[in-house]
Write a structure and sequence with these properties.
The chain is of the alpha/beta class. The chain has helices at 6-18, 40-55, 58-69, 92-108, 127-142, 161-177, 223-236, 241-270, 291-297, 308-326, 344-352, 357-364, 382-399, 440-443, and strands at 22-30, 73-80, 113-120, 146-154, 158-160, 189-193, 214-221, 273-278, 371-377, 403-410, 418-420, 427-429, 448-449. Helix 4 crosses helix 5, helix 5 packs parallel to helix 6 and helix 6 crosses helix 13. The longest helix has 30 residues, at 241-270. The protein is globular and about 70 Å long.
Length: 458
């Protein structure tokens, strides 16, 4: 257990009170493989019992620890081993029923969101994975807390283009089924390249192979803390980029120490293993809690202007270095999130026309995730959406990093309109997509784009 100095304690109190520091999520990973059963009703009973028994005291324990240390814990979540593994002997109707059972279990234990309605299809499909994918539109439109994720690509396997095309259709269908909420169902669905198995953040959290039976993973977020630290330094003295990176590293160190303290305490009280701290800078729609505002402090007057990608690269790298120095248990995504609707400054930049889809894609090559919470016109066709996803998957595969797409085609909305999701999901102007030409002929080749040379690492 890390020992805090008095200076660290005082600085941490200041970060909580003035700079929006919080533990963004405590996520309990639960392995469901022991619940497998060929009878659909027995399967649902087993899953409900295991989730409720393992997570029954989680919210109360988090509340006690939050009060003890004075550190806000914003979300309590669950990540499950991939549901597709339980559905191999079942039909799609069971997938929907199981999702509703999971939703009911999450409500029973007062959990905010539960991830793990997941399929891993980077190299091919199984029956269970097809059941999950085909059920996603109904699942996300008829449940409150369930989130879905699909891994479409990896550096080791390449890109499953057929799955990319299918997921474009699924995203559009999911958005249409939740059109009364601007397509909000698609905000609970994310597609990945190189999906991490210990990510505590939604919508992509799931418990991967090799993880413990039950484990606590922590997501700590501090964009407001880093923004304030940089403001104080930059306004008081002249800094170069190396000194700026050092300040970010020092601040990320403090943030990570807070996360590990809380995570280990929760795990101990629950009697499960402690997993990782994900120190991703996850913004909120609140002013002062924004990755975009950090870019402005760094001198990017219009987010999306030349230099924006370099600023994100600097920020992302320094955050990772600071976190790794603070803890040997850093994992998940860990870096800088740029979710458009969830970050007031990024959303504003889209509205001004400064931040466009192509520039955002370039920035995702150096951030920790990808095209996140991007709202596009509801009449976007499946092949255009598939092309956007395919481009993002390619960035992840070639660069051996996690990339993702959480794109919301807002039904009935066009460029200039706004999509409003509420709460931490925020709102954003509809972002234009490239309309100059189609990609059907390219996508029609289908199959799998082979793994790149760098996949041969052994």
């Amino acid at each position: 257990m890390a020992v805090f100095t008095s200076e660290e304690v005082l600085r941490t109190i200041e970060m909580i009170q003035k700079e929006n520091l919080d533990v963004r999520t405590v996520t309990l990973g639960i392995n469901l493989l022991s619940c497998a059963h060929q009878d659909a009703h027995r399967l649902q009973e087993n899953v409900f019992k295991k989730i409720t028994s393992k997570a029954r005291n989680m919210v109360a324990i988090c509340g006690e620890i939050s009060r003890r240390y004075g550190i806000p814990i914003v979300n309590k979540r669950i990540s499950l081993s991939p549901v597709s593994q339980l559905l191999e002997p079942h039909k799609e109707v069971t997938a929907l029923a199981l999702a509703k059972t999971i939703d009911r279990a999450a409500k029973e234990v007062n959990i905010d969101f539960v991830g793990g309605f997941t399929a891993l299809v980077e190299k091919g499909w199984t029956h269970g994975e097809r059941c999950v994918i085909d059920a996603i539109p109904l699942v996300l439109s008829s449940t409150e807390r369930v989130c879905a994720s699909v891994n479409l690509a990896s550096t080791a396997a390449g890109i499953n283009v057929d799955a990319v095309m299918r997921m474009a259709e699924v995203i559009l269908e999911t958005a249409e089924k939740t059109k009364n909420r601007d397509g909000f169902g698609a905000a609970k669905l994310v597609v990945f390249s190189n999906i991490p198995s210990d990510n505590p953040f939604m919508a992509g959290a799931y418990l991967g192979a090799g993880e413990p039976e039950c484990v606590i993973n922590i997501g700590v977020s501090g964009p407001g803390v880093i923004k304030r630290a940089l403001e104080l330094k930059i306004n008081s003295q002249k800094l170069d980029f190396t000194e700026i990176a050092e300040e970010i590293k020092t601040t990320a160190f403090r943030v990570t120490r807070v996360g590990e303290l809380i995570g280990r305490e929760v795990a101990k009280r629950m009697g499960v293993e402690f997993g990782i701290v994900d120190l991703s800078l996850a913004p909120t729609p609140h002013v002062g809690d924004s990755v975009g505002e950090i870019l402005t402090v760094l001198g990017i007057d219009a987010i999306g202007a030349p230099g924006s990608t370099a600023a994100i690269a600097l920020l992302n790298d320094a955050v990772k270095k600071g976190g790794l120095f603070a803890s040997s248990s850093v994992g998940g995504l860990s870096g800088a999130f740029i979710p458009v609707s969830e970050d007031a400054a990024l959303s504003d930049a889209v509205g001004k026309g400064d931040l466009r889809l192509e520039k955002l894609e370039a920035m995702t090559s150096v951030c920790s995730v990808g095209l996140d919470m991007v709202a596009i016109p509801g009449d976007t066709d499946a092949s255009t959406l598939a092309g956007i996803i395919l481009d993002e998957m390619s960035i992840g595969v070639v660069n051996h990093k996690t990339t993702a797409c959480r794109i919301i085609p807002a039904p009935g909305k066009k460029v200039g309109d706004r999509a409003v999701f509420g709460g931490l999901f925020g709102e954003t102007p509809i972002m234009p997509v490239h309309r100059g030409g189609k990609s059907e002929r390219f996508l029609a080749f289908g199959g799998r784009i082979p793994a790149p040379l760098r996949s041969l690492r052994n």
